[in-house]
Structures are given as structure tokens and as C-alpha cells.
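Holo prediction. Input below; ligand is flavin-adenine dinucleotide.
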Amino acid sequence: MKAEYSTRKIAVIGAGITGVSCAHRLALDGFRPTIFEKSRGLGGRLATRRLEGGLSMDHGAQYVTARSELFKDAVAGSVVAGAAAVWHPKVDESAIAGSDQWIVGAPGMNALVKPLAGGIDTRFTDTVSAIERESAGWRVRTTNDAVGQIFDVVVCTAPPPQTRSLLASHHDFGEQLAGVAIAPCWALMMVFPKPLDIAFEVALPKGGAIAWMARNSSKPSRTEGKEAWVVHASPEWSEKHLECEKESVADMLLAEFRAAAGSTLPEIETLVAHRWRYALTTKPLGKPFLRSVDSTLFAGGDWCLGARVECGFESGRAIADAIVGGP
Ligand SMILES: Cc1cc2nc3c(=O)[nH]c(=O)nc-3n(C[C@H](O)[C@H](O)[C@H](O)COP(=O)(O)OP(=O)(O)OC[C@H]3O[C@@H](n4cnc5c(N)ncnc54)[C@H](O)[C@@H]3O)c2cc1C
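Structure of the complex:
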């Protein structure tokens, strides 16, 4: 039974934590899934950006927390593999301290998914452009293969609006996705020639333009020796300035950072803004994934369960469990 199922061809769209955790679980059970990823690397919003001059910064997810035993095990595996470490930043006292350990990828957040992705056929810079139903299965067309290939099962892990545009014409996915909401986030990356005179390494200001600011260089395994900071704007501010030019957003957020830091800043070496159009889930689906009645088409992601990396992991695993369990 297992051997028969494991010959089924499975396409996974997206190499973020959801897609990779799904593909990893499938591979453990003898399947040989193919991941299609539109960007150049692994991780999705578990993102690390290499800036001019070679410095890397985490401009998406800042740290992960693990609450389920499964995710704790996966994170522990990454720590053992040297791909993750515990981060103990000095948090501004006005921030609410939780009891969770903060785990970061090493040397960057995207490293967290690497131990799960080993050996899996992953096609980078290959965007899935259409999924069509045929008698033999699902035809998956991509930017590198307009004719496409036929797969028995397709798993889509793109953020909700992108999943909607790929899958809305199939089953009732469009309707079910209508209730899911995801907020944008403008991120600012800054590099300074010398350490800033700021008492904290992380702050979560309330009610203003900035929702998060962190000394990226205080994370373990950031060996470049530069003073690097990341700022995330609040969802409200990000929404209001969503269509602004990157340069003007960078200037506005720098001014906000200057005020919030309460310190005179030295000249900046690097200043880069990045827009996350789909960043943080504000209204999740409320169940771990969507599937077609014949269990050949699945959609999942953090947006199913919440706004955290662990939610994506859980969704990916649950999809794989459903596929392994058979139709
Ligand atoms: C600014 C920011 C800060 C955050 N902070 C935290 C935090 O501190 N802690 C935390 O736990 N979580 C945080 N999160 C949330 C966390 O990043 C997400 O929950 C998680 O990474 C989502 O993973 P995913 O695999 O579901 O989606 P994604 O990571 O978005 O992966 C989807 C992948 O699909 C690819 N894709 C999309 N369309 C196509 C297509 N047509 N063809 C091929 N590939 C496609 C994308 O390129 C992407 O790689 C943050 C997110 C952001 C943006």
C-alpha cells in the first residue's frame, strides 16, 4: 500500500517552512516530492537578505518559538546541526516578556529550514503560473516550463492572495480563503559603522509607526562585526504607506527609529527598505489546511493557524500526514 502511494507524483508550491516541512515529512515516508519556488532560495518569509558589502540581515521573521513537541524536535534538530541557536537579547523593559525561548537560524533565519530541505528536488526561480485539471492529474505550468508536467497531488503553500489566484477556480477554495486576512509589513535594514548607544537590543513600541526594532548583530553567529538593526513598521503604518516608494519609506522609518532610539545616530552605511505585502496573518482559516474532495489538491500555510513560523510547520506536516494517510 505504502509503496504504491509513494510513487504518486507530488508538487509542492513554495519553499517556506510550510512547503519544506510538508516535503520533508513526505520524503521520510518514501515519496519524492518536487518543490517549485519562485525566489532564489529557501525560507520564504524566514528570510535573510545579503546587502551590498556582504552583510546579511533577517528582514522577515525575527525568531521562532516552539510550543508543540514536533516543532520543538525539529528546532532542536536544527540547533544540533548548527543551523539554529537560542537568542537572549536585552529586551526593552516596556515590552511584555513571554516565557518562550527565542530561537534564531544561524547564520541567518533562512538556515532554519535547510536541515529539512536536504535531498529534496527543489526548483528555484521557477514560479508556478497555472494549475489545470486533466484526466491524468494536475498539470502544473511554471515560468520555466510553459507546457508543464502532470502531478497526482499538488500542495500550494503560497500566501492567501497568491493561493487564491492559483486555486480559486478549483473546488471551493476561493470561498474558503475569503475569510482569511494577512497584513503587510514594511521592514527597514540599517548598518552603522560603530555600535549605537542604545540600552536595549529589542524593543516592541506600542501604538506608533514602529512595532519592532532589533539589533540584528546581537543574534548568535552574526560574525560580520557590523552594527546592524532591523525595524518593522506596524501593520497600520505599513498599510497606510503600502504603495510608497522604498526610498521615502526608508527615510520615514529612519526618522521614527531616530526618535524611538533616543540616541544620536552616527552616519549610516546602509539603509534599505523592504515591503512584505503579505506578512502577518490577522484572521486565520481556523484549521490546518484546505483540500479538495478527492484529496489531490491541498492548500496550507501559516495563514491556516496563525501568524507564526510554527503555524506554517504544523500546516505543512498536517498536509503531509493527510497525503501519507492516502485518499
Ligand atoms: C516582517 C515579518 C516578521 C515576522 N516575524 C515573525 C517572528 O518573529 N516569529 C514568527 O514565528 N513568525 C514571524 N513572521 C511570520 C513567519 O515568517 C511566517 O509565519 C512563516 O515564515 C510563513 O511560512 P510559509 O511557508 O507558510 O509562507 P512563506 O514563507 O511565505 O512561503 C511561501 C513561499 O511560496 C513561494 N511562492 C509564492 N507563490 C509562488 C508561486 N506561484 N510559485 C512558486 N513559489 C511561490 C514564495 O516565494 C515563498 O517562498 C514574520 C513575518 C514577516 C513578514
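The mean pLDDT is 93. That is the main takeaway for now.
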